[in-house]
Design a protein that fits this description.
- This protein is of the alpha/beta class.
- The chain has two domains: about 140 residues, Diaminopimelate Epimerase, Chain A, domain 1 (Roll); about 200 residues, no CATH class.
- Helix content is about 50%, strand content about 10%.
- It has 13 helices and nine strands.
- Strands 1-2-3-4-9 form a five-stranded mixed β-sheet, with helices on both faces. Strands 5-6 form a two-stranded antiparallel sheet.
- The protein is globular, with a radius of gyration of 24 Å.
- Keywords: Membrane, Signal, Transmembrane, Transmembrane helix.
- It comes from Streptomyces coffeae.
- This is TPM domain-containing protein.
């Protein structure tokens, strides 16, 4: 039996024993935009404050809040960040969860916005978001009080869930002990059968995931190569006197995105892992667009979804009306070149990907490309990608629970507090959900 299955079996048996037991008794100066580093910090201390957001929560207040979280014995992770678009807006919750790699409740103050998201195994995402909104109403304009109240409410909610079912247990007698023993035996047998079936299901799923990952890996490498070629063709020298500090920062973010994409591609083990690759590339393409505008002296581009027809083209500039073969018309974001083609009645420069020995437009490539597309478009709202892909083969494969991560209904498994588990899912799919509830002040 694989080690993970043994751990899961141990966990299931521990839960069963706990159920039977209830019958016997009542029971830095620069904004930190590297989310991976924030995740590392949260693993050792549950409260992270970006130096540029220290006016919202002081060092002493952060220490006091961390002590309260530890005393409450709840997996709450708090990040207080400046209003920096590099954090990805609403996407920061899922990015922090991935970087920290621990099930829990994630509370984020981003500029003047505050909200929360959580793993369903810890607390329903809708509950964590509601508690965030509740404390915003109670303590308007006072982030320290909002966070204190939020932690207290989360602790009460989590410990209240743990206590459910511990009331009304009968006194321990010979009869009840015998009944409990019989119940335990039955539950163990049922658990064994369930674990066996779970193991077979998981084996089939992993075989399918390996096949899908191999199918999409070629497209991922093409994307990384195209991005690398765009970087090498910049002819940008950070030490040139004409290079401003802002240009150097843009260039640094573009390089970081390239390295992150390569690293995430090398470590990808499941189709869902591909999302982190294309998410990094989407960030990189936007940084390059900003850098280009600075160098040309033109207005900085608006943060928009990438070109629908080929995300390698970079951020879109406007929406155009388009319809797939045999499908209904819809409005899609497009780069300037593709927008012009479509408006002139020509075919756009579509991104084709390898499928079964041939190449097809990615929207006709099937479910393996869901996470790939999710990384590019997921940060712009959970409803965007399904709306763009309606009536296509890829759109038809998206489950009703499709979320920003591009995940499908059975995409992940969660462990207990702090065990990391297998991470999957995202906002709205029942595994990890929540978001910003509102603002706590004007400056944040």
């Amino acid at each position: 039996m694989p080690s993970k299955t043994r751990r899961r079996a141990t966990l299931v048996l521990a839960v069963l024993v706990a159920l039977v037991a209830t019958l016997f008794a009542a029971g830095s100066a620069r904004a930190e935009t590297d989310v991976d580093k924030i995740g590392q910090a949260l693993r050792s201390r549950p409260v992270y404050v970006d130096p540029r957001a220290s006016d919202a929560l002081s060092t002493q207040q952060a220490r006091t809040l961390a002590d309260r979280i530890r005393a409450a014995d709840v997996p709450v992770y708090v990040a207080v960040l400046p209003d920096d678009r590099a954090y990805g807006g609403e996407r920061i919750f899922l990015r922090l969860r991935e970087a920290t790699d621990r099930p829990g409740v994630y509370a984020v103050a981003l500029g003047s916005s505050f909200g929360a998201a959580s793993d369903a195994s810890v607390l329903p995402g809708s509950t964590s978001q509601a508690l965030a909104e509740q404390n915003l109403r109670r303590h308007p304009g006072d982030l320290p009080k909002v966070l204190d109240g939020f932690v207290a409410d989360v602790a009460a909610a989590i410990h209240g869930r743990s206590a459910d079912g511990d009331q009304g247990a009968p006194d321990s007698t010979g009869s009840s002990m015998g009944a409990a023993l019989v119940l335990l035996i039955i539950l163990v047998v049922l658990a064994g059968s369930a674990l066996f079936a779970m193991g077979r299901t998981r084996k089939r799923r992993r075989e399918r995931e390996r096949a899908e990952l191999e199918q999409v890996r070629g497209a991922v490498q093409e994307d990384i190569t195209a991005y690398g070629e765009k970087l090498s063709g910049l002819a940008f020298n950070p030490s040139d006197p004409s290079s401003t500090p802002e240009m150097v920062d843009d260039y640094g973010r573009a390089l970081d995105a390239y390295e992150k994409a390569k690293t995430k591609s090398d470590t990808a083990r499941r189709p869902e892992d591909v999302r982190a690759v294309t998410e990094a590339l989407e960030d990189g393409h936007f940084s390059l667009a900003v850098l280009g505008a600075r160098r040309e002296g033109t207005p900085l581009p608006e943060r928009r979804p990438p070109c629908f027809f080929d995300p390698r083209h970079g951020p879109s500039v406007r929406d155009v009306t388009w319809a797939p073969a045999g499908g209904a018309e819809r409005s899609v974001p497009a780069c300037a070149a593709d927008a012009t083609r479509v408006e002139q009645g020509l075919d756009p420069d579509a991104r084709t990907v390898p499928v079964g020995g041939e190449r097809r437009p990615y929207w006709e490539a099937g479910p393996a490309y869901g996470p790939w597309a999710g990384g590019y478009f997921g940060g712009y709202g959970a409803a965007l990608l399904p709306a763009l892909l309606v009536g296509t083969l890829l759109g038809g494969s998206l489950s009703p629970g499709y979320d920003e991560a591009g995940a499908f209904g059975d995409a992940g498994d969660y462990g207990g507090f702090g065990d990391g588990g297998d991470y999957g899912g995202g906002f709205g799919d029942g595994d990890f959900g929540g978001g910003f509830g509102g603002g706590f002040g004007d400056g944040g």
